Amino acid sequence: MNFLAHAYLSFGHPEMLLGNMISDFVKGKKQFDYPENVQRGISLHRFIDTFTDEHPATRSIKQFFKPKYGKYSGAFADVVYDYFLANDNQSFEDETLLSVFATNTYTLLSQQAHLFPSHFELVFQNMQQQNWLLNYGKKWGIEKSFGGLVRRAKYLDDPRPAFSIFENNLFALKQLYDDFFPAVKQYALDKIESFKNM
After folding, report:
1. How far apart are alpha carbons 19 and 6 in whole angstroms?
2. Cβ neighbours of residue 125 closer than 8 Å, sequence gap 6 or more
3. Does any domain span residue 30?
4. How many CB atoms lie within 10 A of CB 2?
5. CA distances from 52 to 40, 107, 109 (A)
6. Cβ–Cβ under 8 Å, residues 43 and 134
7. d(Cα 187, Cα 48) in Å, to the nearest integer?
């Protein structure tokens, strides 16, 4: 899952949102330096990633990208999921609600900026200034995200085939998203509920 999905699957819990968003920037025992609910958000992120990687829909989406992008196909799948979530009427009835969600997410994270890992500070600055969470819902936003992914990856140099794969298979990718997202949403809700009993 990508940033929009991880934010959405935090269900408005501020500290779990922070943990969910910074998880990839927190290595090893560093997670125990954070308040308990932030730690839970870090764990939630990792549980969601494992569930996502093991889901048949994700494996199917990866097959679209694998011939050209190999081991990076999962990263492209994550971005694809964010596009369909941003355009999911069950989650956001229209772009206005998505915009409000994005603004609220940036506000909740800004209020906890003193806890940001150093590598997340620039990511968050770019995320907010360029409004990534809103722009994942636009095709040009996905094209730009693919470009950023390729720039950060070793051995990749051309995002254009990825965007063509995305555009040419929208219907099939949407069906796979529809198979996947209700399942991961319920999984995340169950995980958060289980944290209350710990």
Report:
1. 10
2. none
3. no
4. 20
5. 18, 27, 24
6. no
7. 8
- For residue 196, the 8-state DSSP code is T
Residue 145 contacts by C-beta under 8 Å, 6 or more apart in sequence?
2, 79, 82, 132, 136
Residue 112 phi/psi, 5-degree rounding, is -115, 20
Does 164 fall in a domain? Answer: yes
Select from 87, 115, 75 the least CA-distant residue to 181: 87
* Per-residue pLDDT tens over the stretch 124-171: 999 999 999 999 999 999 999 999 999 888 888 889 999 999 999 999
Distances (CA, A) of 175 to 39, 42, 144, 178, 179: 33, 29, 23, 5, 6
Q: Supply 134's token pair.
A: 């809103």
Domain of 9, in residue numbers: 3-23+36-195
Question: What angle in degrees, to the nearest 10, is found between the helix axes of 170-195 and 73-86?
Answer: 90
Taking alpha carbons only, the member of 166, 106, 152, 147 closest to residue 130 is 106
What are the phi and psi torsion angles at 2 (to 5°)?
Answer: -105, -175
Q: Is residue 31 part of a domain?
A: no
Is there a domain that residue 163 lies in?
yes
Model confidence pTM above 0.85? yes
Domains in the chain, number: 1
